[in-house]
């Protein structure tokens, strides 16, 4: 009996370590987004370099957590809710790594935007606004993962629709700029790539919130409507 209890406690400790590492990775990715947007608005070359250079740390975190999950599956053979938790972690770190890629992409676009003299300084008000929404979604998704908060998860899925609307508004604005003044085409396209990267961050945060529903309810809610997810959470 004592041996079984020891094994159970060790298993619980392994699961807690994985959860902690996911949240640490998530926190670092949040910092990457914040720095990338700062780099974009300030044109700070040092920050740009830091974001791009730190992307390998995000990749290393993903590999490390994935290896731990593989060991847990091989040694502990988890079932039911424990297995769902491990599967959720594996999916979540994949999305976090891709969010890290988007942050690095924003930094690279910032470098491009500030690499040459521009006749017109670009405006980033709308981009910063949607970035705040997407970054907030990521923070809430991590919090929902930590607390197993289904209501928060459902709210994040709804917020993704707002990010999509904001992206479309920025796209329309940039098209107008380019039509009115061809000199703005180059910068407008670079800003468009930034806006698309932010929209993708929102998509990944939404994915993460859907994994929380799967972890708690055992229901795969990918590729269903927001209303269906909300009904599942209430049920």
From TrEMBL:
Main location: cytoplasm
Task performed by this protein: Plays a role in the regulation of phosphate uptake.
InterPro entries per UniProt: PhoU (IPR028366), PhoU-like_sf (IPR038078), PhoU_dom (IPR026022)
Domain PhoU: start-end pairs: 23-109, 128-212
Subcellular location: Cytoplasm
Assembly: Homodimer.
Family: Belongs to the PhoU family.
UniProt protein name: Phosphate-specific transport system accessory protein PhoU
